[in-house]
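TICKET: design request
STATUS: open
ATTACHED STRUCTURE:
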């Protein structure tokens, strides 16, 4: 059991790092092939690095790496080593991939040269997918994503909206270098599309499901879910209406991404188990999202208000 638990943990870590690698590759493609050639500014550290590149010629990846190093030192205390380790990995992959791509890319390569708006849309989808996948795997591309993750820990604010607010100033400041308001407007459009893609992707990947499991081997299944899948579950007492037999029902809530693994565990222990799965709208508590509010309710004042209304 312990070996399977360790193997499950290792596989999930490898999956997360694999997702982060793919996310960074998508971001590198979107930035270097569609945005930089058209001088379209994005936000965050990437946007700052792009502005520095257009103004001084310093490679984007160099500025990107240096600024993220400073930001991640601050984020270590807030987000913890687990999040920052994956983000550091993402920053390193992004920097290396950008260097390699710029080394092998023909200098005259200019995709969608006469279709700037289409290049803006394609680049936005690539970057938005990169940010969303990175956050869903517990890491990020650095920059405003790290700031968004820190704020989201304490306030129930959309990740996309936080990134949007952080990046508007950066895009506007690109006018100092580009001297073209049309390019700045393209940057605004890019930012709105990225924020939409991030929200849609993160919310879809964070969906949760609930299980009702009926099996004579409920004890083994419950232990496997607890120890291998590392998900809590409860045992409910029931009665079969047709058989008139007392039964045990396992109730479990898990991330949608974990559902296939839980099904595999159930099938291995009892292929004949009865399993009902359904989607849930929101799950809050240990292991899931936290309830966040801008202010705490004063229950004493609320009770006094209700009593006054009754009088």
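STATUS: resolved
RESOLUTION: sequence designed for all positions
ATTACHED SEQUENCE:
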């Amino acid at each position: 059991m312990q070996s399977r638990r360790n193997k499950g943990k290792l596989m999930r870590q490898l999956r997360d790092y694999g997702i982060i690698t793919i996310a960074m590759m998508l971001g590198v493609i979107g930035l270097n092939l569609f945005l930089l050639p058209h001088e379209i500014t994005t936000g965050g550290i990437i946007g700052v690095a792009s502005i520095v590149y257009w103004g001084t010629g310093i490679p984007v990846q160099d500025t990107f790496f240096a600024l993220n190093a400073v930001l991640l030192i601050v984020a270590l205390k807030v987000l913890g080593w687990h999040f920052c380790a994956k983000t550091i990995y993402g920053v390193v992959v992004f920097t290396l991939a950008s260097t390699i791509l710029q080394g092998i890319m023909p200098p005259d390569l200019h995709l969608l040269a006469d279709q700037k708006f289409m290049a803006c849309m394609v680049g936005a989808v690539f970057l938005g997918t990169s940010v969303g996948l990175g956050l869903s795997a517990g890491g990020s591309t650095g920059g405003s994503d790290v700031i968004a993750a820190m704020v989201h820990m304490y306030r129930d604010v959309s990740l996309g909206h936080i990134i949007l607010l952080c990046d508007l100033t950066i895009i506007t400041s690109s006018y100092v270098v580009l001297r073209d308001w049309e390019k700045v407007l393209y940057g605004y459009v890019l930012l709105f599309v990225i924020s939409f893609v991030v929200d849609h992707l993160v919310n879809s990947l964070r969906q949760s499901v609930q299980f009702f499991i009926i099996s004579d081997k409920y004890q083994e299944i419950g232990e496997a879910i607890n120890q291998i899948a590392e998900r809590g579950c409860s045992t409910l007492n029931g009665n079969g209406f047709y058989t008139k037999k007392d039964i045990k029902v396992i109730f479990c809530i898990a991330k949608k991404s974990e559902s296939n693994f839980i099904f595999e565990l159930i099938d291995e222990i009892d292929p004949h188990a009865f399993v009902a799965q359904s989607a849930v709208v929101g799950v809050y508590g240990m292991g899931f999202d936290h309830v966040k509010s801008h202010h705490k309710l004063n229950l004493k004042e609320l009770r006094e208000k209700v009593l006054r209304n009754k009088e």
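CLOSING REMARK: The mean pLDDT is 79. The domain at 208-280 is CATH 3.30.70.120 (Alpha-Beta Plaits).
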